[in-house]
């Protein structure tokens, strides 16, 4: 495909109106295949480099011989550009619209981004497929690494290597996969080394209206329970009512009679459309300049975002509490097992396992429990809160996870090695990034697109010493204990870092005081270096 | 015992998990003698003790013994060894009531119900036989409300000793001198030396140079409670001033007073500008108009041609009291969980905080922008006016804050003399007094909001603010007692009681904000948008055991370590430079080098 066909005007004179935290830039505006550049000339430091994929919505207004384009970005920043010339305005707007909505993965910017400081493929050894297994194997030999999914035949959304009970053969796994939606059979998500309890995750069993059973699936869960303790709890992230509904369309949940030792618990968590709506309403409320001030709190309440944060944290705490204090093993799933399920399993690990709270451990957790576990990033993050039109598969599940982590970092300011900046960066990169880490929906797709060999990894960039320092929590001190956060509503705060209020706070914070200790951060971390135009 | 897998609906409660581990660890060291003497301050005497059941709203009934002294109520549990369950100055108590009667049935239905001024209630159950609560009720009422029983406040009995003398922190003349006063436009007047002109004003006032004491007396007749416009603060550069006063006595008939009009004109001209004098009336305009019916009012444009009046829409003490009562309803004992934010909104507490902050910002901006001097008043000019002028100064006069942690609020507040006695009701049993109002708490809330938005700008920390509020009620110190300098002098407060600042100054480290950076040399305008105001959870919900302490201490401690490390590196750098320069230059030149080098030392490493 030729990008040039989509660029109707490559150049115009423009003015960037100052927004919160931005300064005015007047200069030449350029549209390249992946970027919008506004430069005052001579590589001025105030130049604007915007990844076009970051654009969520384009609004244009023309008056006389000039126009205004408002770019609402996926990372929630809003840019206003005044452009000279009526034709130029319309052309630039339509070029941005066309380029920002390209869906092809292999022509996306990460495939062209070639920073000098990084080598392609240098993150490959960072989190190898058996990384998790090696850690578990240090503690126990009751689990094994299965490669039954090596060619993605058993489950399209699982990675090639998975950890399962040692006594269970690959043929049992394959049969169990047949009984689970999308082939996501129960696999080990976390081994709690202090008492040997385990957390598994899967998708829903395909029980259906006539309550089908699967001997191999039952065998698998029996074996898992035998390894991890005597009592098991299936935490279904849907309500009992939703499970009933699911049964009509072939889904369901574990029948008590079929899985002795396993009890069931429903903790409904919001997902999909309602979650996306909540996010959209939250951003609307935060950016609404006309909002009368005495209605702010009830409007924030009405968005229900903080309720979702509370529910997600509470559920994760419940799992963690059960494992750590009651010696209960858990199987977590909802329907597909790629959204709320991962939210719960990853948060529970962060609560229980100090290793997950280091920079390296957190990246490893994200890689294992979100990226390789098959959270469909491309679908979920196709649009953010500003996009017009009906959302298809968008849902800010990952953002909800980051928000929960932020709440933990607020309540335990010393216990996480990474700071708020890291969480904000992850949010931005999940929606639009020069790196390949969050591309595609599964390991299979990433394999087919050769993401790992043709794009750079966000992790190798983050682990460069300069970047690492930027994202570290300067007051980190390792905490060997579990983190039991308060989930009372008065303990949860709106994470204002991700929205820009019409009136921003003065740029003075403890964070900025602390950065006095550190070298001045680079204001533009990822200058584009492609030659694709 | 409680097994999750078998329970119908398992619950998550962070606190129970923590208590669990605390209880476990404390059981090991169980050696405490239950009859051990309770802690006492010098001058504190034990009055009585009694076996009671404390009905804890969070953990259920707890058996224990309550001790009452002339200063505190102290409860020790029989069951756990965790020391004091309650240790409360009696001054905190707003009301003591009997609960249930001799014939009431039901467990723990007979006893005492105690309402506190600091956002909590206490409930004790006693044995029903033999009027067991009568004596304890009487003792509590007597010592919690000494002034209603002809007894002295504990502050007058307190014999504590501190290395610092907090009464010396504030000296009005010194304070004025620091502001460059008196000067050719402003003079110090002793017209109120013996409080003969105005009982509620201090003895030393700063007034326009061109107004005589006679003029002042004439103006006083036209201002509510004789509170004439006096200077609060002068801008060091543009010489604009913040004046405060009470409302003019305009009344229904629209009375005028030539002396008052002339006086305001003199104030306007004192800064050498010809723009109009900005008058900020803290009240909503309807209230200002309504005040005419009781003889008050405001300065209308058609009479005061050279003044502009702005209404700041801050409601009166009764509205504030009601708002705080609603807030208490939703946070104590249990936090209203469903629709928490909407419930919070319906108390309007944050909205009132917003109006006060917004008003202060407007006052500060007017003075700083160099256009005109301002005059601030409400009705009597001691609640809302005091809040506004203090906050405006807090915004503008950072140096006043940095000068000394401990005396900041005192300086600001004594200057404006709000009537603490009336608003807090120290030692008075009349809990329903309509003069009670959380004005000072609201002011402190505003200060806290600012400290949240500028975490490096204030030398004091949250503990400082909470300690002040606790001692606002405690009656341990004389600092907040009585309504005015006049009353304080009459009662010989400075001679007979200790200052809160004596205690705070003697342990400064505890109240110092480690994030404080001196370099910040500019006005601090907070953002008073509702989106940026937060409920001060660590104050209002601190009694709730489910409320986790947000661990401010380890952060501060870590920061202190980093600061120490920085200082060490700076010192080493200094030494290296010294050795270097000693090598390079002659001995005579190097002697002055260290002090010159200081500003160049950067802290980046």
From TrEMBL, chain B:
Binding residue positions for substrate: 316-317, 378-384
Source species, domain of life: Eukaryota
Composition bias type Low complexity, residue spans: 586-595
Family: Belongs to the protein-tyrosine phosphatase family. Non-receptor class myotubularin subfamily.
Pfam families: GRAM, Myotub-related
Biased composition (Polar residues): 1-16
Active-site positions on this chain: 378 (phosphocysteine intermediate)
Domain named Tyrosine specific protein phosphatases: residues: 347-394
Keyword Hydrolase carried by entry: yes
Native organism: Monodelphis domestica
Catalysed reactions listed for this entry: 1,2-dihexadecanoyl-sn-glycero-3-phospho-(1D-myo-inositol-3,5-bisphosphate) + H2O = 1,2-dihexadecanoyl-sn-glycero-3-phospho-(1D-myo-inositol-5-phosphate) + phosphate; a 1,2-diacyl-sn-glycero-3-phospho-(1D-myo-inositol-3-phosphate) + H2O = a 1,2-diacyl-sn-glycero-3-phospho-(1D-myo-inositol) + phosphate; a 1,2-diacyl-sn-glycero-3-phospho-(1D-myo-inositol-3,5-bisphosphate) + H2O = a 1,2-diacyl-sn-glycero-3-phospho-(1D-myo-inositol-5-phosphate) + phosphate; 1,2-dioctanoyl-sn-glycero-3-phospho-(1-D-myo-inositol-3-phosphate) + H2O = 1,2-dioctanoyl-sn-glycero-3-phospho-(1D-myo-inositol) + phosphate
Membrane topology: Peripheral membrane protein
Gene Ontology BP, a term: negative regulation of autophagosome assembly
Annotated protein name in UniProt: Myotubularin
Entry GO MF terms: intermediate filament binding; phosphatidylinositol binding; phosphatidylinositol-3,5-bisphosphate 3-phosphatase activity; phosphatidylinositol-3-phosphate phosphatase activity; phosphoprotein phosphatase activity
Keywords, sorted A to Z: Cell membrane, Cell projection, Cytoplasm, Endosome, Hydrolase, Lipid metabolism, Membrane, Protein phosphatase
Domain Myotubularin phosphatase: 166-540
GO cellular component, one term: sarcomere
UniProt-annotated stretches for the region Disordered: 1-24, 580-605
Location(s), subcellular: Cell membrane; Cell projection, Filopodium; Cell projection, Ruffle; Cytoplasm, Myofibril, Sarcomere
Keyword Transmembrane set for record: no
